[in-house]
Design goal:
13 helices, seven-stranded mixed beta sheet, Aldehyde Dehydrogenase, Chain A, domain 2, 20 strands, 2 domains, single chain, Aldehyde Dehydrogenase, Chain A, domain 1, alpha/beta
Length: about 475
């Protein structure tokens, strides 16, 4: 299987343009393909197409919309091997992880397809002769901006949610990993979504966001990415009175209490931290471990990390792929160096692996002081930071010390401790005794600097609708 020819979709037609950059294979640094960049005329065409698509799609019956979305999910399944191969090439995750991403995308479409049939309004009790109603309508044209780390699963949340609610959408896919967005939009297009209801563009992020967000036809902005970029786009949305869904970064805490099986949790933590080479907004990073089990946990975690095989994405024995680019590699090296200089102990990893591509091994750092940079900045890589705690209050205070509030994890069999953590941890998602932070049927999103709005669950389509209150007096 080769890498696909890259194009974008506007108004039901695939088109190309002058390339703005080359797509790079992070496993070996080779060039995969030139990426066409949309120009202003393309964006004008996309907006006009999305307006036409909205007019056609919003009046399609919910049951028919569901059937089309389910066909798109089925098409992703039929094309899974080719899609996974392309994602492994441009993003660097292993084939097994890439196949799992396709399956995740399918599950999210299936959930949203069904939820689109449950966007209920209300009849509000009132006096005789007066009817009061609350009705939901699709908000309109959506502009969506998605990241490179989950190039299929992340845009799926936005495209499936928008379409299930009856909206049209313009998706700006990530330039580093364009094959995933292209495969997703192709599935919806081929499934029978009307021309213009789904559109895909690539290009310079600032140019596209600063053109689409102020446009009067765009009625909602949804973004997944870094906190600084999210704040910039949120300010731009505010200037133009545009509602937004912002799923931003984090630095996820993990509380390991004294009653946890330290060795088992340590081994499990290595697998969780290695997922997507740690390039996950909800990746478990700051481990606050009770002093009574700290050493056993650290030894188990480090041993499992040393045994884990990092390498090229398509190598059959690779359990963790490379980082996306040289910038991420440089950042992880800087965080490790900073922690070491401050007295932390590198228990596993800590040095780049080979000279081809951007492979960096899973790195566990013990006894990390609170002032280490990675304890307050999102490292976004295969870096785990271990810190001793002795009380629940200390664990909560350490976990909540940052302005982030996306995901958190805890391991305990104590009902008392788990309830304290449920009530006390500042996060949008808390997983207890496991490392899965997101399910299609559960709302996902952050608080504080990690954003606002929710994707998934019964709440996931709320942002793609507006509520109209209607009162009618009998004549």
């Amino acid at each position: 299987m080769g890498y696909p020819e890259l194009k974008f979709l506007i108004g039901g037609r695939w088109r190309t343009a002058a390339p703005g950059e080359q797509v790079i294979n992070p496993s070996d640094g080779s060039v995969l393909a030139p990426l066409p960049h949309a120009g202003k005329a393309d964006l004008d065409d996309a907006i006009a197409a999305a307006e036409r698509g909205l007019a056609a799609w919003r009046d399609v019956a919910p049951a028919e919309r569901e059937a089309i979305l389910l066909r798109a999910a089925a098409l992703l399944g039929e094309r899974k091997e080719a899609i996974a191969h392309a994602i492994a090439l441009d993003q660097g995750k292993t084939l097994a992880e890439a196949r799992g991403e396709v399956e995740t995308a399918q599950a999210r479409i299936v959930w949203d397809a069904a939820e689109g049939r449950r966007l209920y309004g209300r009849i509000i009790p009132s006096a005789a002769g007066l009817r009061k109603m609350s009705l939901r309508y699709p908000i309109g044209v959506v502009a969506a901006f998605t990241p490179w780390n989950y190039p299929l699963a992340s845009p799926t949340r936005k495209v499936a949610g928008a379409l299930a609610a009856g909206c049209s959408i313009i998706l700006k896919g990530a330039e580093e990993t364009p094959s995933g967005p292209m495969a997703l939009i192709a599935a919806f297009h081929d499934a029978g979504v009307p021309d213009g209801a789904v559109n895909l563009v690539f290009g310079k992020p600032a140019d596209i966001s600063e053109y689409l967000i102020p446009h009067p036809s765009v009625r909602l902005v949804t973004f997944t990415g870094s906190v600084p970029v999210g704040k910039h786009l949120a300010a731009l949305c505010g200037a133009h009175m545009k509602p937004a869904i912002m799923e931003l970064g984090g630095n996820s805490p993990v509380v390991v209490w004294e009653d946890a099986d330290a060795e088992a949790v340590g081994a499990l933590a290595a697998k969780a931290k290695a997922r997507n080479a740690g390039q996950v907004c909800v990746s478990p990073t700051r481990f606050f471990v009770h002093a009574r089990v700290y050493d056993r946990f650290a030894d188990s975690f480090a041993a499992a990390a040393r045994a884990l095989r990092a390498g090229p994405a398509l190598a059959p024995d690779s359990e963790m792929g490379p980082l996306i680019n040289q910038r991420r590699l440089d950042a992880i090296e800087a965080y490790v160096g900073d922690a070491s200089r401050r007295g932390a102990r590198v228990a596993s990893g800590g040095q780049r692996q080979g000279n081809d591509g951007y492979v960096y091994p899973l790195t566990v750092i013990a006894d990390v002081p609170a002032d280490a940079r990675a304890m307050s900045e999102e490292p976004f890589g295969p870096l785990a930071l271990l810190h001793r705690i002795s009380t629940v209050d200390e664990a909560i205070a350490r976990a909540n010390a940052l302005p982030f509030g996306l995901a958190a994890y805890a391991f305990t069999d104590s009902a008392r401790v788990s309830q304290r953590l449920i009530d006390g941890l500042d996060c949008g998602s808390l997983s207890i005794n496991h490392f899965t932070s997101s399910f299609p049927e559960v709302p996902f999103g952050g608080i504080k600097d990690s954003g606002y709005g929710r994707e998934g669950g019964a709440e996931g389509l709320d942002g793609y609708t507006f509520v109209k209150g209607v009162t009618q007096l009998a004549s």
